[in-house]
Amino acid sequence: MFRPGTRNLITDVPGFTVGHATDDRVVSGVTVLVCGGGRPAAVDVRGGGPGTRETDVLAPENLVGRAHAIVLAGGSVFGLAAADGVAASLSVNDVGLKLTQGSPAIPIVPAAVLHDLANGGDKAWGLDPPYRRLGVLALQAAGQEFSLGSVGAGRGAMAGVNKGGIGSASIDLGAGIVVGALVAVNSIGSAMMPGGTAYWAWPFELDAEFGGAGPPAAPLGAHPDNADPAPDDSRLLAAGRMQPGANTTLGVVACSAELTTVECKRVAMMAQDGIARAVRPAHTPFDGDTVFALSGCSAALDANHRRAAHVGRIGSAAADCLARAIARAVHHAGSNPTRSVEPPRR
Amino acid sequence: MFRPGTRNLITDVPGFTVGHATDDRVVSGVTVLVCGGGRPAAVDVRGGGPGTRETDVLAPENLVGRAHAIVLAGGSVFGLAAADGVAASLSVNDVGLKLTQGSPAIPIVPAAVLHDLANGGDKAWGLDPPYRRLGVLALQAAGQEFSLGSVGAGRGAMAGVNKGGIGSASIDLGAGIVVGALVAVNSIGSAMMPGGTAYWAWPFELDAEFGGAGPPAAPLGAHPDNADPAPDDSRLLAAGRMQPGANTTLGVVACSAELTTVECKRVAMMAQDGIARAVRPAHTPFDGDTVFALSGCSAALDANHRRAAHVGRIGSAAADCLARAIARAVHHAGSNPTRSVEPPRR
Q1: pLDDT-derived band of residue A221, with 50, 70 and 90 as boundaries?
Q2: Of B117, B40, B129, which Cα lies nearest the Cα of B84?
Q3: How far is CA B20 from the centre of its chain?
Q4: Nearest neighbour of A284 by CB, restricted to B205, B216, B315
Q5: Each residue's pLDDT tens digit, B156-193
């Protein structure tokens, strides 16, 4: 049987670190994944209200196809500035593309943001939103250990009508192949099955990593919400959440296997299935669901197998890890005593 | 509580009919959904080995964005010819775009095919593959009632290591809004959870429509395949199935609500989540997973709600229906006594 890595975090994949910066007054924050140099990366955007930066540079048909860090941020469009802080800090440390002698290093820092502007925090920042500064701080905090739950980009997040947050998980597939996921869950859909006791992701849980509640206690067919495709719509509408870009699940998956940019793209596409399995509904017009996929390039693939078979297996593992990370995010956010369960009604 | 439509088939959506043509000697076939005139349509291709026709005409930025019929076919690339037969037959009946007086009607017949060339049927068709003829016959057979299981485009299909086939399901959301799905399941992934007693789609089952087996009997964590992201890889490799384009889930979702082409696109994207929830792994490099979405335009949306909220709810219902249709396909195919459980080893 396959097991999670030693930390059950995306940082079990060698070469990656994660840092958070959280502003409790603003009720928002930034999370950064640092790649330790340019690594093959791709992105798959499937939500109807995305907020992103430097996604085109990762398109397989374009030149670079690599990233030096990935930024996840609260703050909606203002959160995109977090990548400015990360890019400037990395460049000062000489991390980035070196195109011309004497020019600064050019770090590629793709970013995606979630909407947490209406969660009761102090958003009266006028001309000086805090995200650039939070990006710098998150980068300084990066390490192999990091917190889950109501921190960083997940500090102000909601998962449907429950508190959202930051989650992570990993799996060791043997032969040096480790796959991990990092997620900020701010979905309009719910991570809980109707009835509210079981996570949608329960079949994928390892070692009671999100509470070990298992499948729903009662037969689901008996629950009146079972056949409702959007059971929380009226509550979400009242909370002002039925807005384009007002919700989002932001995921990053990473693997140790040496993959090309196009192979990372397929892994990112497959990893979206982890969102589908852990959140219902997902990929709605109101979500900005985005998944980045990275290769750490620390392990060669077994040359006796077709590369596409490896990619399919890694993509499936990435989907599993992302589903587990989503449930862990909600689990850890829910156990944080500072949580605010509902955003203010407008 | 919401209930399936009267037939629990995609034909519960007014204006759509479905027909099959099956060739038991070839062990293949064709399924056609007829739209009763040009209807807003979109498509979302997510598999790594698709085989399609007339998908570009459905791109939201292009002119037409409508379809007169959708063809699902076995036969890999040869199956695309089924759409020729359907297009010619529709045109003879004056169904299609009328661009210039005196010219034949021009039917838009998007199609997607699945690979069933190695399933033991007689494929020695040389210069005369049967699919054009099967397309004509499927169109002639179209009606509101149609069979599920090992028929039409699903006649030669496999769902992982189990028999695949044709499935369908519907849901009545009230106020005239009916959503339905049609699917041909030939996935590399399994529709069954580890242990083989429960369908992945079990949470979505209504009225014991695929056997009523419910959730897995034993805790899943005890099953050695639980954490394996691709538990059937070795059996599928031995069966020659680990090939690009060798597997595919082809879906069509339809709703009665009047949607635009771009709204159909979002519904098709959300419906892919039904594949993710009902099949694991899905969207691999070896699958050609493709979902079409159509609007029957027989019901106006409630103008008191935002259109995007309607689209999200319809998309979520489409995902549910597609997940249920996938489980019904495998359920009905498995109860067919003529099934061949494994393709010949090569």
Answers
A1: low
A2: B129
A3: 13
A4: B315
A5: 999 999 999 999 999 999 999 999 999 999 999 999 99
- Token readout for A275 is 């969102």
For residue A331, what are the CA distances in angstroms to A72, A241, B112, B273?
Answer: 20, 21, 41, 23
User: Token pair for residue A235?
Assistant: 């509550």
Helix (H, G, I), strand (E, B) or coil at B305: coil
- Whether residue B283 lies within 8 A of chain A, CB to CB, comes out as yes
| B147-to-B153, B182, B306 alpha-carbon distances in Å | 11, 11, 37
Q: pLDDT band at B239, cuts 50/70/90?
A: confident
Q: Predicted ipTM?
A: 0.92
Per residue in B263-295, pLDDT tens? 999 999 999 999 999 999 999 999 999 999 999
- CB atoms B2 and A224 under 8 Å: no
Q: Is A174 on the interface with B (CB under 8 A)?
A: no
Strand partners, B257: B299
Contact of B129 with B78, CB cutoff 8 Å: yes
pLDDT tens digit sequence for A208-220: 999 999 998 766 6
β partners of residue B40: B66
Who contacts A126 (Cβ-Cβ below 8 Å, separation ≥6)?
A: none
- Is B26's pLDDT higher than 80? yes
How many residues in total does chain A contain?
346
Please give the Cα distance from A14 to A3 (Å, whole number).
16
Query: Does B228 reach chain A within 8 Å, measured CB to CB?
Result: yes
Least confident window among A3-12, B285-294, B302-311: B302-311
Confidence of residue A304 (pLDDT cuts 50, 70, 90): confident
Inter-residue contact B110 to B43 (CB < 8 Å):
yes
Mark yes or no for CB contact A229/B313 under 8 Å: yes
Strands (E), chain A: 17-23, 28-45, 52-53, 66-73, 111-113, 158-159, 162-163, 165-172, 178-186, 248-257, 290-299
Cis peptide before A281 (omega within 30 of 0): yes
Backbone phi and psi for residue A158, each to the nearest 5 degrees, phi listed first: -125, 145
Closest chain A C-alpha to B25 CA, distance in angstroms: 32
Q: How many CA atoms lie within 13 A of A221 on its CB side?
A: 12
Q: Give A136's contacts (C-beta < 8 A, 6+ positions apart).
A: A21, A85, A86, A88, A89
Task: Among A2, A273, A313, select the one facing B227 at the smallest CB separation.
Answer: A2
Q: Kindly report, residue by residue over A83-116, the tens digit of the pLDDT.
A: 999 999 999 999 999 988 889 999 999 999 999 9
β partners of residue B299: B257
Q: For CA atoms B189, B194, B195, B201, give the dihedral sign.
A: negative
Residue in the block written with tokens 């340019």 = A38
pLDDT of residue B69: 98
- How far apart CA A265 and CA A256 sit, in angstroms, is 15
Beta bridge partners of A186: A248
Which residues lie below 8 Å from residue A101, measured CB to CB, with a gap of 6+?
none
Length of chain B: 346
Among partner residues B280, B308, B320, which is closest to A285 by beta-carbon distance? Answer: B308
Strands (E), A88-134: 111-113
> What confidence tens digit (pLDDT) does each residue in A245-269 have?
789 999 999 999 999 999 999 999 9
Residue of A nearest to B320 (CA): A229
Q: Which pTM was predicted?
A: 0.94
Contact B282, B275 (CB under 8 A): yes
Give the separation between CA B226 and CA A256, rounded to whole angstroms: 22
